[in-house]
Each structure stands twice: as C-alpha cells, then as structure tokens.
Amino acid sequence: MRRSVRRIRIAHRYFPVTTLGFERGVGIWVAGCENDCQGCLAPELQNPRAGELMLVDDVVAWALECRGADGLMWSGGEPMMQAAAVDTIVQHLNEAGAHLPVLLYTGLTLGEIMATGTSAQRRLLRHIDVLIDGRYRQELGPAPRSYRDGTY
Ligand code: SF4
Fold this sequence. Notes:
Layout: E1 7-17, E2 25-30, E3 52-55, H1 56-64, E4 71-75, H2 83-95, E5 102-105, H3 110-116, H4 119-125, E6 130-132
Parallel strand pairs: 2-4, 4-5, 5-6
Antiparallel strand pairs: 1-2, 1-3
Helix pairs in contact: 1-2, 2-4
The chain binds iron/sulfur cluster.
C-alpha cells in the first residue's frame, strides 16, 4: 500500500526555469544529499535541514499556478532521498490534469536504485520521463548551461 506523504523539505523552487531541459520548466530543488560527490555543485543543499519543510499540497498548488509550464524538473540535493514525497507531488499534479513531463537529476545510478533502492524510489521511476543519473564527476568539467539548445 502506498504511504501518504504530507511534507517535503525544499531548498528552492522557481518558475520558469529556461535551462535544464525545458523552455518553461517548473524547477524544484530538494534539500538533503548523502552522495558526497567530489566538487559537489551545491554543497549547501547537502544539509537535510536546508530550505523549508512544506506541505506537498502547497507545492502542488504552487506548481499548478505556473501558467504555461512545459515540464517539471527535480534536482537538489538528492530527490531520491524524498522519493515518496516527490512521487506524491507528481501524482497529484497528474490527477489535477497538469501531466507535465518529469525530468529528475539524481546522484544515484539507475542500477543502484534498481538493485538496492527503496520501494518508493523504484515506484517514482515509473513516473519519470527523463532520469539524469549518477554522481557528479568534477573531472568532466562544468555542466552544460542548456540541454535544449546544446549550448555549453
Ligand atoms: S548528488 Fe548533487 S548535491 Fe549530492 S553530493 Fe553530488 S553534486 Fe552534490
């Protein structure tokens, strides 16, 4: 049975996000990460107490007000640490008719999630359209500014 999750710890939320996959994305950055990537891009978001503890209903209401949104982007922090809450929000948005494509950045690999992830993490995978997975690798250089137009 799916556990009902009422709260989520969010570091930032923003609309419209014009990079990171969409032209007018709803962007949500969760707080908390234990992946400890060398050269972490967002060390301030590793703290699981960063940001604000929000009701998932309030996050859904905010996202529904983002007129003209063409996608929902999750980053952090580590969204998979709060997979049940992320999944609840995605499903509530779908039930409200939003049906936004979902792109999610995770420091875990797909293989890790499938092999040792929680049931909530594997359930969330079913509702993600694009998964960008794996630890940040500093030696590969800066992240692209945009996946949409190929600008680096
Ligand atoms: S997954 Fe992201 S937030 Fe977490 S340690 Fe790696 S770069 Fe930092």
